[in-house]
Structure formats: structure tokens, C-alpha cells
Amino acid sequence: MEKELRLMKGNEAIAEAAIRAGADGYFGYPITPQSEILEYLMEANPQATTGMVVLQAESEVAAINMVYGGAACGKKVMTSSSSPGISLKQEGITYIAGAELPCLIVNVVRGGPGLGTIQPAQSDYFQATKGGGHGDYHLLVLAPSSVQEMADFVELGFDLAFKYRNPAMILSDGAIGQMMEKVWLKPQKKRSEEILPWATTGKPATRERNIITSLDLDPARQEKFNLKLIAKYREMEENEVRYEEFMTEDADYIFVAYGTSSRICQKALQLARAEGIKAGLLRPITLFPFPKKRLNELADRMKGMLAVEMSAGQMVEDVMLSVNGKTRVSHFGRMGGMIPTPEEVVENLKSFIKG
Amino acid sequence: MTEEIIIAGFGGQGVLSMGKIMAYSAMMQDMEVSWMPSYGPEMRGGTANVNVILSDERISSPILRSFDTAIILNQQSMDKFEKSVKPGGTLIYDGNGITRHPERKDITIYRIDAAEEASKLKMQKMFNMFVLGGFMKVKPILKTDYVLKGLKKSLPERYHNLIPKNEEAIKRGMELINKV
After folding, report:
1. How would you classify the pairing of strands A304-309 and A253-256?
2. B35 at interface of A, judged by CB pairs closer than 8 A
């Protein structure tokens, strides 16, 4: 299969990219607005071509534990859901993080809390970046802003998950999941046949047994393990921060926005510039690790930063921590599945400038 | 060149698929495209709409409040989106079922009686292709060859025998559209 240009929904792009990235397994349970991922994979039936297993589990809890099992065998496995379903998966996710296993989790976010709405939102930022389940842990979180990135981040997510033996998450939303754009798909990769040294695939006589667990009843050993995890997160902060800047060189004010909001802000900054306001945009691509250093540098010469999110204000806290009082920071957001328009964002920037 | 379009009507009128064909055709003309549907409660029996953007540049916001062209296929959508056309923009509407006609003076208004013609020719299922033909006439961005290729891409293979009929509908739509 060659590199190929297609018009696809974000959800479909994730599914096709997973097959092409040589994934070993997908375990999911339907929920709007991400059901196309499971539907696409079921129809594509990759088991017949690449051997990738696709299974609709009996629940979200079952699906994440299937991922736990597959990951323990060193396999490239993933699941996807939307907000309420991701909440159900949290126990499994913290176990996977505690057992230091790689996997990919996709959250196509809808408005909450509770069952909320099926329309797009960005209200799961805290849950995605601060752990989500119990215990001190982080996921490596990627935030796509286009259908192309929905596809690209599947392979990137798997690569990073295996590099750090840590679960990675694609934090998307209903808008990017449902929207169609052009997407270049990479050629088909073969599934890996490598047996990883830590994987529980049956103990040969030549080595000690591998143990996959998130339990250690000895507090001194558990603390040592916690420190090891923290060191891993610091390493991610050192090596994996990704972001994109738009017209920040001469900007007085910047928007900070990810995913769908960052697309809206791209238009908003054009509108603002047309009115003579020197606006720019920093789009975090990794939400954990967050582009703290870069925001801190930019804060030296900015008159202010406006975090635009489809939430009551979550990422804005990380922006504040990053700039540490060096410049003014405020938040504008819509909730409940409402999507701000570029014009609305500009109005809010203007009132932010006024103070 | 960037053309920001909204197509709005009842579910079942082919609003989403018309947008999809536009996006496919523009993609084959090497343009950037985005197709953002309304999904959820509106799709269950009520109105359906889709934002389509065709551009020579990287597309910023796929979700918009004002449009270069609005294609309006029922009264509810007229009430909602007549005011969303940019000054100097274009409004195309089907007269069927419209009780309050568009009144703005700062935009160009076209009427296409596609539903009536489709029913006369017993081609009701191709209603949206008549409308697409009208759009192609007044906004010559998409070329017929590419639209037919786009149709081939977006229709399941079992319907490919209907492509000549669709072409007929597009051509008739081009003749049917009139400036108000």
C-alpha cells in the first residue's frame, strides 16, 4: 500500500492510521461522537489482512482491561471512547500507568459532567493531563487540531508510549472527530514480531520471570518506584514538548489554545490583525508535557495571554503556572457543546486588552 | 481564494452528501477542504446543516458564523441563516415551502426551484444535484469533470450506474437558477 490521499472524518482517520501503523489490537465500546472508530475498524476487518484484532468489548471497563492484557504481552494495543466512557476506563488506565505499560487511548471529548451532551467540548483537560485515575501518574497527551494530525498522532502516540513504557492519550473532541478533511495516509507497516524483554509471553529457561503488576506492599520500594515514574515524566518534559506558533514574532497578545479552539483562534487572529491588534497564537500539541518553558519565554515580551478553551477554564491554570505572574493571563470559553466563533473570540480579546 | 459555504435544510434532502461531493471535487482540484456537519439532535428529524470550506490556503476555523455563500433549502434554515451571509455574499434558495422570501439588499440572491423540477422529472432523489448545478453556475469554482469524479468517490459502487442521471440533474440545475 502506498501513501494515499483521502477525504476522511477524524474518527475514520484514527482507525485507518491504526491499521497502517501496524497495531496489534483495538478494543472498544461504542459512544457518540467517536463510534466511527469502532465501526470503521469492524468494516475494514484488518484481522484478514494485517492480523490486527478488533473487538467490541461488553463494556468500557472490559475494553481497557483487554488493553492492559495486550500491553502486558508487549503488543501495540489501543482503545477509544468519549468522555463518560473514558471516566469508566480510569481504573484500568491508572493500573496500566502503574504497571509501566505502553498503550494508546483516544478520547473524542464531549460536554459534561455526567452524560452531558454529545456535542464537542474540551472539558476533560484536567482528567487527561493530571492523571485521571488515582495515584501520582501522567499520561503523555497529544492534542490534534486537524484530521491529518488525528492520523499522524496514532503512530506518534504508539512510538512515545513504547519509548517511555507509559500510556499515551490522543485528546481530541467531537468537532475534529466528525469533521472531514484531506488526509495523507502513510503506507502499511508490518506488525512487529519482536518479543520485548519485559513482556509476559511465557518464561523461557534462559531468564528470570517477568512480572507485570501495579502493586507493591513495601512502602520504601513503592516510593522508589514513584521516584522512577517522576524521573520519567521529567524526561518527557525535557524531550517531548511539542507546540506550534502563529505570528508570535511581533505579537503584543497571544491566544493559547489547542485542538478545535486553536483552529478558531487562527481565524480570530486574522480578524484581530485586520483591526490592527497584534495578535498571535501558541498551540500546545503535547498537553503533557506542557510547553511551559516556551510560554515563560514569550511572557517576557507579551502584554497578555488569553487561553481559549471549550471548558470553564482548565488549561488556563497551566498557562498561569508557566508564566508565573510575568504577564496577564485570562480565559475565554464556551461549554456544554457550544463552540465559540472567531468573532466571539476577537470580542473577548478586545475586552481582555481593555482590562 | 477561500469560499466559506453553509448548506442547510431538512434531514434527508441530501445536505450532507452535497457538501461531501463539493469537498471531494475541490480536493481533486488540489484545493484545501473542510466539511463540518451538525450532528446529534438536529439530525434526528429536524434540520441538518454543514459548513464547507474550499480554499487555496491552509484552512483555519472549520466552524464559522458568517459565510460567502448560503444554500438554503427550507424555511427554518432561511430564518436562521439569511443573516449569516457576509455583505456582498451569495444566497441560493429553493422556493419550495418558503413562506418568507429573503429580503436582504446587500447580498446577491438566487432562486432555484429544484424540488419542483426534480419532482416533474421524477428525479426526486437527485434533488441535491440540481441545487449543486445551480451553485456551480453562479460560483464557478468546481469543474463538472471533478464533480463527477467526486460523485464516483462518494457514492457506493452499487449506485455508480446513476452517475449519468446525476450529471443530467447538475446540467438542468445550471439552467434552472435565476437571480432574484
Report:
1. parallel
2. yes
Interface probe with B: pick from A115, A148, A181, most Cβ of B within 10 Å: A181
In chain A, which residues touch B (CB < 8 A)? 5, 7, 32-33, 117-119, 174-175, 178-182, 260, 263-264, 266-268, 270, 339, 341-344
Q: Is B15 exposed, middle or buried (0-12, 13-18, 19+ CB in 10 A)?
A: buried
Average pLDDT, chain A: 97
Residues B70-124: pLDDT tens digits?
999 999 999 999 999 999 999 999 999 999 999 999 999 999 999 999 999 999 9
List CB contacts of A285: < 8 A, sequence separation 6 or more: A142, A143, A149, A242, A243, A244, A258
Cβ-based contacts of B65 with chain A (< 8 Å): 341-344
Q: Which of A179, A266, A341 sits opposite B64 (nearest CB)?
A: A341
Nearest chain B residue to A7 by CA distance is: B24
How many beta carbons lie within 10 A of that of residue A225, not counting itself? 15
**Would you identify the CATH topology of the domain A243-354?**
Rossmann fold (3.40.50)
ipTM entry: 0.91
CATH code for residues A4-201+229-237: 3.40.50.970
- Res. B46: pLDDT tops 90: no
* Interatomic CA distance for residues A47 and A9, integer angstroms: 22
Q: Look at chain B and report how many structural domains it folds into.
A: 1
Compare all CA atoms of chain B with the CA of A246 and give the residue at the minimum distance.
B60
